[in-house]
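Quick check before the chapter quiz. The format below is the same one you will see on the exam, so make sure you can read both the input and the output lines.
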Amino acid sequence: MDKLNLMQAFIAVAQQGSFTSAAEKLGASTQLVSKYVSQLESELKVRLLHRTTRSVTVTEAGLAYLERAQQILSDIAALEGSIKEEGDEPKGRLRISAPMSFSTLHLGELLAEYQQHYPTVTIELQLNDRKVDIVEEGFDLAIRIGNLESSSLIAKKIMPINLVMCASPDYLIKHGEPVTLEDLQGHRYLHYSYRNDDMPALVSTQNKRFVLNRQKGSITANNGEVLTKAAVAGAGIILQPTFIVGPYIAQGQLKPVLEKYQQESLGLYAVYPHRKYLSGKVQSFIEFLSNYYGQIPFWDNY
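Here is the expected output.
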């Protein structure tokens, strides 16, 4: 049995939350979709879905398989699209939406090098930390940072975005350096205003979570670079991505705290509207972005 058919059936059921809706989406019978999912579970020797008379939910193993399966199907579709366009040089205007701080710090050189490889592509970049409507606002793709919610858009993970909690040495001398999660109570915090309670926190190996955004902040801003410079000046503790604070840590202007605790990470994603018939300009940019920073970006080597 075609493994791709099995994967497509499972993905449809996981996304739709029912075999009936998945069958309608795939244009197949409910019995066939059920057969495909059962066959896939049998081959993997693991349960991917919890089934009751009222609902279908994805197991922990199913969630892990779902993410990889979606990426595999996306890569296959992209490969087919690139093969169909082989020999057709990427060209035309490429409209990109991207987050402010990452772009100002790390995207300029990438764009210049990309255009050296593809001089017939003109780039229009708009920087905004809000989540733009790609289709409605006419973007070819968006670069996003976060834990993406499921949607009708296609998302390719480029790399993990690591976070670090840190403060200036002067601040830590004045207010004390925390060594446990309990020590964080009573400190001054600098908040990124686009964060919410569902975003990453500081996590211990015992699964005790300290959510920085729930603490009272002395400064709140919608830009991580501003908060980082405030932290360097001694204003408080920040939880920021290493692509912003890494160089400051390397220079000794900021010091990581509670390094023994695990930090939840985010992801850098290329998000685009359609999997099918991906244009040469979009496909080439995604591939270039995927390979540009390497497995360990320089800002993590502090």
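If your answer matched, good. The radius of gyration is 22 Å.
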